[in-house]
## 1
Amino acid sequence: MIEARELTKRYGDTTAMHSLSFTIAPGTVTGFLGPNGAGKSTTMRMIMGLDRPTSGTVTVNGKPYRQHRSPLREVGGLLEASAVHPGRSARSHLREGVQWVRQLVRALAAEGRTVFLSSHLMSEMSQTADHLLVIGRGHIIAAGPVQQVIDSVAGGAVRVRSPRAGELAAALAADGATVTSPEAGMLDVSGTTAALPDSLTQCSHTGWDATAATPASASSAISTSRSTHDS
């Protein structure tokens, strides 16, 4: 089990994580979703004892990673995308890798282990995970069973604010979303459950980063801005 309580991380004047609290239960696959800069890697590094929290705690099986007598017998992690098998081609990785990861994490969960899997893509996590934890700019913005999180936005609308709203609207529309603009720099997006998170990820890869994807009916907003800290 992985448990975080009021987990906060600051780098100088920049706060990467804001009082995160969550529990990742054993016997399940939990997907960890968010765009670049959302705080996923920072969270993973604190779980693995590679970064120290500014405040708050994160434990694995009841103890911080560094306090385990044999930590490698308690938790393992793969944090770098460059850690690939040197004997496989890029084509082989693309064709076989996703299916292999799905099978591996499902098998580990079936053994009663705790699986926490980071991704940018809602569409991929919907086929792999049991639960989702969605993060944006260091805040948890959604958590729960996969279908519950998907249903929370299905047929509804989310509100997006961006200085590049025109480009974002085009990307979302290309993925099948319905997009309207109630005012300059603001978009209301509806009609899709997977296209919104995936299109926001595309924006983050071009240097723009989204903080959230929550229903507009809850008066929530998504803001995009230049990323100043990769996490």
Note: DSSP finds six helices and twelve strands in the chain.
## 2
Amino acid sequence: MGVDSDFQRAKLERTPFKWLVRMTQPINISCPLLRELVSRWSSNDQSFRIREFLVPLSGVDVCMGLGLGITGQEVSFNDNNLGLVNNLFNGEDITVSSIVEKLNDKYLNSKKNVDDFCRLYILLAFVVFYFPRTTRTVCTYPFYLLDSLEDLHLYNWGGTVLSMLSSSLDRCSYNFHHQKNLQGMYLCDCVLVLQVSVLLLEFIFTLIYYFIDGPFFFIEQLWAVQHVGMGTLSSFPRFIDWPSLTMRSSRIESAFLYNENLYSVLFLFFN
């Protein structure tokens, strides 16, 4: 979601969503991996069950994965105040297509309209990246918070992503285990957090440490990930430089089930 103009980039980089302008390529989401994680989600514990362990999903994952803070004021998605950004649409339906069309408008790409451009850019980020939905029209988003770009840092965006993703996992996990509406089952919100989860990766490292070759192996492989052509673990936030996942469902499932496959799980993550 890069931008062409330096003045637009400079303005956006003073907001909590500054990392998006540094994205240079699309991120592929691994549906088989998400399905496996949904099947292992425990709503009561807000954690993933992996063998005899519980691996929690926490604000650390959101912070390290997306670069969002996890403190600040609550973000409300139920406020009917549409704010300044709604005025740009003159009563028409707000959709992904109409937002993109406005962003490409020459009028909004001038310096004097940089604030409106940034409001639209962040709204698009809400809709397709941080809080994606399946509805066509864009509604029940915190439009009003975009009125003051300078105050966006006051809000708990990371905590909001975590809360909404956890709720989505709760719903999907219930449907999965009760065999309800499996054809129409979908995860909303920022599932990318699951794919770049810090704690899941650390947990895999821990299992390698305890069940395979001990401390020397663990330290050696951690060094390799950090330094030998696998530097994505040290990127911040992680989504900026994250590789594609190419595992099939059967390989992911077996990897979570058997200790002897944990070594291959780690390196399959980084194809």
Note: The two ends are 23 Å apart (CA to CA).
## 3
Amino acid sequence: MRHRKHNHQLGVKTAHRTSMLANLCCSLIENGRIKTTLARARALRPTIEKIITLAKKAHLAQDPAQKIHYRRLAISRLRSKSATKKLFDELVEQFAKREGGYTRIYKLALPRLGDASEMALIEFVEEPASKKKKKKAKKSSSKAEKSKTEKEAAATEPESEETNVSEKTSDAESREDVASDSQDAEPSNAVEDSATEETSETDSAENEVTEVSDDDQPATEESSVDPEEDSKESK
């Protein structure tokens, strides 16, 4: 009887099915996530997980012959040396501590146009270590940039305070200079006003003196003329 012998037929013959699964496995190893039909994703899961188990055995083995043996088995199933090398040298470390369940499947809501078949995403459970390192490097760089900006801001704040203080002192000095200039200008103006007043007073005094001298001259003349006339009359 053929009990418990279920296999994902996928509507194709055996050779076609093995080639298709090998290509799907290579695409998943190279990209980390692929989009395919739900039936193919379910058929791909056991195949890729068995190959990942071979990579884990080769990673834990201490005999070089055993490592080469597992690698050759994987190459015979994947039919790609580059994908096998990436799986055995790079991706195996993220699955070393997991006991199965290396992939996950997401069902997509929209079916495929044309035949309306159900679509799904299949991906590895854990992200590659390179992506994690890149994310950590980005976070550290962002933290360093933030610390630099904070230090620059803290350094610029005292400078701005010093500039404000210097501007305030310069404004106060300019105001004091203006006040002193105005105070100096007021006495000079007062001196000039007093000088003009004195000159005007002297001019008025001179005018009065000239007027008085002009008034005195006829009196003297009259006084000088009168004695003569008196003498003539006496004669």
Note: Helices lie at 14-31, 38-60, 64-78, 81-89, 129-234.
